[in-house]
Known about the structure:
This protein is α+β, with helices and mostly antiparallel strands and 164 residues long. The protein has a domain at 46-150: Alpha-Beta Plaits (2-Layer Sandwich), CATH 3.30.70. Helices cover 27% and strands 20% of the residues. It has helices spanning 46-58, 69-79, 116-135; strands spanning 63-66, 93-97, 101-111, 138-150. Strands 1, 2, 3 and 4 form a 4-stranded mixed β-sheet that branches. Strand 2 (93-97) and strand 3 (101-111) form a beta hairpin. Helix 1 (46-58) crosses helix 3. The longest helix has 20 residues, at 116-135.
Amino acid sequence: MTETPGRSLPTTSGNELSGSSDAARRGSGGKRLPEPGSRGRTTIADGVVEKIAGLAAKDVLGVHAMGGGLSRTFGAVRDRVPGSGKSNVTRGVKAEVGEVQTAIDLEIVIDYGVSISDVARAVRENVVSAVERMTGLEVVEVNIAVSDVKLPDEEEEEPEPRIQ
């Protein structure tokens, strides 16, 4: 930076804001306050991580559905009644969220003919990437249970609605 005679230019170190005074960044006791973005706590509910993980898992080619046969059957009935439980996005997903880490369990149905190990690897990579990017939490594990294989000629099991 060059100086013009009779005029001084403000200088900043790497973590200071240009043009702000040092006094403005100090509390009443003269102590330096943390950056504004780090004042306070952020908590993330299990359901938030479950939705992110469920959507990320469904995006993987070869994943036909989430949840086992029984949970899908009950879920199909429950989805018809507004406000009646877990959404379709979180079916087959369970997350345990701590302060800085999370663990995720997934139950999936895969399409016939795909490599289960390749799909599981792709699901883990997609889920870890999405959850860590969106939440900042460290994903310590993604456990996958393959509960069924969707055959090409198999029709979707839609139970008859109990409520009309």
